[in-house]
Design a protein that fits this description.
The chain is 51% helix and 14% strand. By secondary structure, the chain is an alpha/beta fold. The chain is globular. The chain has helices at residues 8-34, 40-48, 67-79, 86-101, 104-115, 231-267, 279-307, 311-340, 352-357, 360-363, 368-379, and strands spanning 121-124, 140-144, 147-158, 165-173, 180-188, 194-198, 209-219. The protein is built from eleven helices and seven strands. The two termini are 38 Å apart. Strands 1, 2, 3, 4, 5, 6 and 7 form a seven-stranded mixed β-sheet that branches.
Length: 386
């Protein structure tokens, strides 16, 4: 079945990206974060090798693949201990939306640069008062002649300081019904009235988090992405890849933690045998491996459905994949730290920081409870509680 078995090309891509990730590794990323810098070297090399734009159209400088290929890249970098979070945002969400719905000018302007890594784009949907309810988004877009005027706030937006622009989700008034409908706009980083404030996070990563303020930001007509009346379709065309890539991020992190624990369990001898010989150590690690593999299968199914054009089927599978991967990642990290005991909390082994990082996929881009709501309503046909 093509949904569960990887092609030879996919296996070769895995091996090549794994080799790149191994050359950098977790120590590289740790040093970058400690210096308050960004993994520019890894980003640039991944771009030159064609990995960042592997999902984007060939006619615009990409690899002509899909989310299946891009998720392999992120998973293998994560398994090597050096995931690139902006891959979830720039090529997966923004690149996909522009490739599917952008104008010819937008495609020519953005896709080659997103593919070769010379430009990045952030994605702004979350708002302080909306939470998981995207219908409560209050960022509004109103017409002023041929221009658009954007006003509103966003929160927990990754990488805005390094992104050349942010794809902002706003709401515009429908001229026929008077209701607000979602629309997507490309907002340049230096647009007047577009301000950012860095959020102090306990989670230490290379990509910083920001609160954004849009104070009457004036944009030309060509800043609108796609059809003004198809915003919801276009929005979910970006959110499904986001969930699939979040699953890849989590699976890679879980694999990295597990590999450190397995190596330690093979070598650490307290009594007569290595601790990995004891079932109390071995079985939980085996269980963590199984759960990560199962999550990957659902991720591969979701990517296959999305790349095949089945948006509805991909929506269900992408949510399930993200849920399964997040749970598997948290368990794998927890068991890996526990396997190392006190050493699992030291900087030397690089696992303790993953305790916090592993929870990201449980919370973002949508909480596990909202995924359970989705499956309850959409899959099981149960009534809504809200």
């Amino acid at each position: 079945m093509t949904t569960v078995l990887e092609t030879d090309e996919h296996k070769a891509l895995r091996a090549a990206v794994a080799a790149l990730g191994t050359r950098y590794g977790h120590d590289y990323l740790t040093k970058v974060v400690a210096a308050g810098a960004y993994p520019d070297e890894l980003w640039s090399e991944a771009a030159k090798l064609g990995y960042l734009g592997v999902n984007l159209p060939e006619e615009h400088g990409g690899g002509g693949g899909g989310i299946a290929e891009l998720s392999i890249v992120l998973e293998e970098l994560g398994a090597a201990g050096c995931p690139l979070l902006m891959m979830v945002v720039s090529p997966a969400i923004c690149g996909t939306v522009i490739a599917r719905f952008g104008t010819d000018a937008q495609k020519q302007d953005w896709l080659p640069a997103l593919a070769d890594g010379t430009r990045t784009m952030a994605f702004g949907i979350t708002e302080p008062d909306a939470g998981s309810n995207s219908h409560r988004i209050t960022t509004t877009a109103r017409r002023d002649g041929t221009d658009w005027i954007l006003t509103g706030r966003k929160v927990f937006i990754s990488g805005v300081d390094i992104a050349d622009a942010t794809l902002i989700v706003g709401r515009a008034e429908d001229a026929r019904t008077g209701k607000l409908k979602p629309c997507l706009f490309i907002v340049p980083r230096d647009a007047p009235g577009f301000e950012r404030r860095q959020i102090d996070m306990e989670l230490h990563g290379a990509e910083k988090q920001f609160e954004l303020t849009l104070d009457d930001v004036r944009l030309p007509a060509e800043a609108l992405v796609g059809d003004e009346d198809a915003g919801l379709l276009q929005l979910f065309a970006g959110l499904n890849p986001e969930r699939i890539m979040t699953a890849a991020f989590a699976i890679g992190m879980g694999r990295y933690a597990l590999s450190r624990a397995i190596t330690y369990a093979r070598e650490r001898t307290v009594w007569r045998d290595p601790i990995g010989a004891h079932q109390a150590i071995a079985h939980p690690l085996a269980q963590a491996h199984i759960e990560l593999e199962l999550a990957r299968l659902m991720m591969q199914k979701a990517a296959f459905l999305y790349d095949s054009g089945d948006d509805a089927g991909a929506g269900e599978a992408a949510n399930m994949a993200k849920y399964a991967a997040a749970e598997a990642c948290v368990k794998a990290v927890d068991q890996s730290v526990h396997t190392l005991g006190g050493n699992g909390l030291t900087g030397e082994f690089g696992l303790a920081s993953l305790i916090t990082a592993s929870r990201v996929a449980r919370i973002a881009p949508v909480s596990r409870e909202m995924i359970l709501n989705y499956v309850s309503h959409q899959t099981l046909g149960l009534p809504k509680s809200y």
